[in-house]
Amino acid sequence: MLTASPATEEGRPRLFSSPAQSVISAKNTPGRILIVEDEDALVEILEFNLQRQGFRVLIAKDGLEACRIIGREKPDLILLDIMLPLLNGWEICRMVRSHQDHRISQAPIIVLSALGREHDKLKGYDLGANIYLPKPYSIKEVILQTRRLLEQKRSQQRLKEQLESMQRWHELQDHWQQALFHELRNQLCLISGMADHIRENPELSAEHTVLFNAQIANSSHYLGTLAENYLLVRQVETHAGQLPSEPIILKDLFAELKRIFSTLAEQKSCSLNCACLVDKTINLHPVGLKIVLAGLLENALKYVLLDGHIFLSAEAQDDNRQLIIRVCDDGPGIAEEERERIFEKFYRGEAQRNRTGGSGLGLYMARTLTQAMGGELLLERNSADRCCFSLTFPLA
């Protein structure tokens, strides 16, 4: 057997080595190895051979120093002697395996000890050692076992990351489904309730019949729009690409949106005003832009107060190189700490969470589609009695 002595099969350590051997970039370093050994000759041999293999080597000559280095450096693997000054290897094993930081508690441990009895080996494995090599040991075996354990650790880490990614993906799908089913149930309950009321009350006045029919139509339109929005946003999320552009006459889109939302605005005694100062044709995704503006108008109608005002406007700025579209209302403002959170998926503002219905998807979908069209959606700085969203797109 080849033993860990200054005359090993790897050769006697040299005092000087070439730069190519001694300088190893952090990016290419296969791992950080902590040697916990109080015999200088063994430390020298292990350090030299590990560095030749590209490892970064840390050294501790006693148990307390080892604990400090482990806590500070979080080595990838520990080569551990048992009979050490101040604190023995058994205690270090216990400390490592019981540590709260998983980067420390899961670090592989190779015990290199003169205690070679069967009882000592079993004790080492019981305390968490991965490999127990009694002295004299083969340097080549130490290197091979080190590489094997580190590759095993990396494989486990990759597998863990993949599992966590899959778990996050499934949780996201669950959230999507819960939000959509929640909205679907609410709207279907509303539609069925209105329809039943009309059916069960044949003497209902024409005014109320028209009102209920309008509500049924609005809810049906909302469900269709929600389905379109969902499919388009999922397409953008899945493929992470840009939405193709087509020529759009912005004034025509504004007129269509006003026709769609005028009834809802009247029901809330709100005024809906549109002002498009852009005469030329622009190039954006027609459905995507319509979904974004419809979502912002629905959001404004949801939070605006009775007899409030909603304003949709568009203008070209920066010498016609930039298109600015704004959707503003005089409803309650948004708290400073929630300015960015409102664009998160499924997030709903604290102040309105229990006052209005919703899935928390509207503003997320609006920003996602805006970015997919090469634009930016922001909440402008507002006072306590005003809320204004701005969309910015580059103009060719």
Brief sketch in words of this structure:
By secondary structure, the chain is α/β, with parallel strands linked by helices.
Uncertain spans? 1-28
Helix content: 40-55%
Structural class by helix and strand composition: alpha/beta
Strand order of the largest sheet: 2-1-3-4-5
Largest β sheet strand count, sense and barrel closure: 5 strands, parallel
Strand content: 15-25%
The succession of helices and strands, N to C, reads HEHEHEHHEHEHHEHEEHEEHEE
CA-based gyration radius: 34 Å
* Coarse shape: elongated
- The number of strands is 12
Span of the ends, CA to CA: 76 Å
Number of helices: 11
Mean pLDDT: 79
Describe this structure in words.
The protein has helices at residues 19-22, 40-52, 63-73, 89-97, 102-105, 118-126, 139-200, 206-239, 250-267, 286-303, 362-372, and strands at 32-36, 56-60, 77-80, 109-113, 131-134, 246-248, 271-276, 282-284, 309-317, 322-329, 376-379, 387-394. 25% of the residues are buried. Strand 9 (309-317) and strand 10 (322-329) form a beta hairpin. The chain is elongated. Mean pLDDT is 79; it is low at 1-28. With 396 residues, it is of the alpha/beta class. The strands form 3 sheets. Strands 2-1-3-4-5 form a 5-stranded parallel β-sheet, sandwiched between helices. The N and C termini lie far apart (76 Å). The chain contains 11 helices and 12 strands.
Describe the structure using short key phrases.
12 strands; elongated; 16% strand; 5-stranded parallel beta sheet; 11 helices; 396 residues; alpha/beta; 5-stranded mixed beta sheet; disordered N terminus
